[in-house]
């Protein structure tokens, strides 16, 4: 928290000043810029997680039909 909170707070302040159309995307871009060493290649593909996500999406669609 000690390292995360300051950068997130600065990012949220930046979002409120810029008032972008998509605040979440704006904040995500801000955080990527603040941590340039993060590499998307560090994110691991997980087949079971994808299957679970697809199941959740299917369940969500079924619930909408009720």
Textual characterization of the structure:
- This protein is mainly alpha-helical and 66 residues long.
- The chain has one domain (3-65).
- It is 70% helix and 0% strand.
- The chain has three helices and no strands.
- It has helices at 4-18, 23-34, 47-65.
- α1 (4-18) crosses α2 (23-34).
- The N and C termini lie far apart (42 Å).
- The model has no long low-confidence stretch (mean pLDDT 86).
- It comes from Diaphorina citri.
- This is Adenylate kinase 7-like.
- Pfam families: Dpy-30 (PF05186).
Summary?
This protein has 66 residues and is mainly alpha-helical.
Q: Which runs of at least 5 residues are low in confidence (pLDDT < 50)?
A: none
Number of domain units: 1
Question: How many beta-strand runs?
Answer: 0
What gross morphology would you assign?
extended
Mean pLDDT: 86
SS field, number of helical segments: 3
Percent of residues in helical segments?
55-70%
Major pleated sheet = none
SS-derived structural category: mainly alpha
The succession of helices and strands, N to C, reads: HHH
Alpha-carbon distance between the two ends? 42 Å
Strand content: under 5%
Radius of gyration over alpha carbons? 17 Å
């Amino acid at each position: 928290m000690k390292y995360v909170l300051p950068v997130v707070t600065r990012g949220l302040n930046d979002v409120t000043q810029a008032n972008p159309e998509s605040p979440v995307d704006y904040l995500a871009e801000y955080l990527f810029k603040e941590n340039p060493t993060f590499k998307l290649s560090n994110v691991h593909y997980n087949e079971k997680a994808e299957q679970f996500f697809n199941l959740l999406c299917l369940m969500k669609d079924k619930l909408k039909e009720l």
